[in-house]
Amino acid sequence: MINLDKIIEKAFEEQSLNQAEIKYLLSLTNSRKQEKLFSATSQLRHKYFNNKIFAYGFVYFSTYCRNNCRFCYYRYNNAKSPRYRKDLKEILQVCRALKNSGVHLLDLTMGEDPFYYQQQNLSNLLEMVSAVKEEINLPIMAFFGLWPEEMLKDLYQTGADWYACYQETHNRKLYRRLRINQNYYSRLSLKQKAQQTGFLIEDGILLGVGENLTDRARSILTMESLKVDQGRVMSFIPQEGTPLEKNKTPKRNEELLMIAALRLALKNVLIPASLDVDGIKGLKDRLQAGANVVTSIIPPTSGLKGVSNSRLDIEEGNRTIAGVKNVLESTDLELASVSDYVEWITARREMRNDSTRE
Ligand code: SF4
Fold first, then answer.
1. How many whole angstroms from 144 Cα to the centroid of ligand 1?
2. What is the CA(166)–ligand 1 centre distance, in A?
3. Which fold has domain 52-357?
């Protein structure tokens, strides 16, 4: 018989959860049980991270994309989405501002911009990452879509620490409907190859795009089998000009339960609380559910966009370290230092190297 106490006990004993147990967590409706779950996920986070929270600066430097994902505001066919491509000078300026504000990592993100992918300009991206690493000297996450596997080593040599690549769903049929003409296994294999190259890796799930509870549980189990270092969940937000613009956003409680289930299943990995869905007002709930990284911090005057909420809270200056600190003040959590973060990624890499040697 599945029950919450047993699942929590298993997680604290570092045992894997099975699909039925994860589905049980995701379908909890009783508020007392949910409170118990969130208290357990906070304790588990504390076991691995004490009270430290990490924060990532988001540098969405190109909003062009050759793909047509049905859920995405920046899909190729959407004439309504704002398009820009920042040059190196502008990127460095934003990165400097983010570093000065106190972020721990720079998340350099673009869609599969045809300028880079179809005009053989990928080496420009290598130069850009090298320049950012050299001048700003912070950990870097690269998020460039389906980067060629044969160029992973070149990217790693620039000093990038992470490669992020989201499946968004791990139901292959649904994936084909959502990510039109994109191969499920290519994205999966890219993450595995990136990991073998030495990168830390992140996968992501989008909620409310046609998946059911079994699919959600499967996503968590796939992330576990991939041994991701960061696992993110985000609620779908309907985007103007896209085929899913009339779909509803899921109830936020579903995202909180996913964060909690990710924490119990994946244990010591990083789990984001994205500011991109509900802005700063949604941060505390996500942290209370067990998240430990604040993502999508964007400087107010940068002219950069978010992904699912392209403008939310940006110009108001709320998606900043100062905004995050305000929220943390009402919790027992605190912002880590950059050296705490570097220590974590170094230890994680060593752990990974040891397990590959075994
Ligand atoms: S989700 Fe990514 S790959 Fe798909 S259209 Fe949007 S930016 Fe392009």
1. 10
2. 10
3. TIM Barrel (3.20.20)
